[in-house]
Please model this.
Amino acid sequence: MGGLAALARESGHKVTGCDTGVYPPMSDQLRGLGIDLIEGYGADQMALAPDVFVIGNVVSRARLANGQPKYPMMEAILNSGQPYTSGPQWLSGHVLHHPTHHATGPRHVLAVAGTHGKTTTTAMLAWILEHAGLQPGFLIGGVPLNFGVSACLGSGNAFVIEADEYDTAFFDKRSKFVHYRPRTAVLNNLEFDHADIFDDLAAIERQFHHLIRTVPAEGRVVVNATEASLQRVLTQGCWSEQVPFGSLSTHSEGFTAQGEPNDFTVLKDGDVVARVRWGISGRHNQRNALAALAAAEHVGVAPALAAEALALFQNVKRRMEVRGIVQRGDGRITVYDDFAHHPTAIQTTVDGLRRQLDGAGKKAERILAIFEPRSNTMKLGAMTAQLPWSLAQADLAFCHAGGLDWDSQLALAPLGDRARVADNLEQLLAQVKAAVRPGDHLLCMSNGGFGGIHAKLLAALQP
Model:
């Protein structure tokens, strides 16, 4: 919604917005664009009298324990009969499939979907197209460091969008991505998530197939060849060109890789087409790069040119972002911020850091994983059994358990004395401070602001 607000502002509209607990980097970006942020959902905001209300999917018809509406502004909109729409629907009608002052007709939409890696892969793809001179528009669920903003209309015909499977709004329970109607669709991976709205994996697969149905025959579906769930989606029907990626076999179809994640050869149908050398770590990012290369090729960017762009790719804020370093004695303590919140994402993030340290000859340096089970799926306890596996490569794990309805101590018991559980942020900070030592890497993972833990850690660890 923040990126969408930025696009509306760039289009020439006056934009205001309301939310609760808005946190950086999005809050900083919006204020920098001159977009007023109002705390809360009070009905008094109706006095702003906008031409249209754009409703995000956080808003519902829920009521508080005292019977009062949780979102009084929404009730006022409905009662007064004022025009409203969802974010994806507004985007589709005003940016993606409607001529603007930048484009003469519908854009070539490149949509990146998947349980993990959407933001990073979308940022990679947008940067590749920018580097190639295509001046794309984009809407990304994070702030790519190469651009400094999460959204831009662009002056070219291509528009790159992060395509989320979460529902659109309380009045439209379809996945957001069905509104985007892409010509190029990336299916990065697919596993169970969003336990608050999906009953099982099959329900999410059905939504992914709804996306596939919208891709034209002249379009391209870029699909992770290693994911059984995505193969099940394709067997339900696909009417577009399919380009697989992800296998490490030199005889596989589509885009594959040989070499280490930070230096690898790219092959297409077994033939070498590019080499990527960059400062990004992790096998998951190697696969993300293959997906971006395959998608960029569909709009005419040769893999070799795309690889040049990736060499200059700076990643996204809150993806293994170093927030600060504290010098303690003869060693350094590094504090990272990462958006990981699903067990698979946590495992991938910890694994990526471990490989990075091992590759740099720092095998003795410890990883302290500090995480907050904040997503709806994690709060429901749907994936507690996977937590010990996701944290297995961390030397110590610290869990912020405040507000959870499940026993985090019991869930982390397989980790033994490597696990710590805290009921509040102050206790968590004290636990980390007592355990940390020079050379440690403090990996903070949450899909929220985490109470500003990064700055608090850096302040608490000063000698």
Summary: The longest strand covers residues 321-328. The radius of gyration is 22 Å.
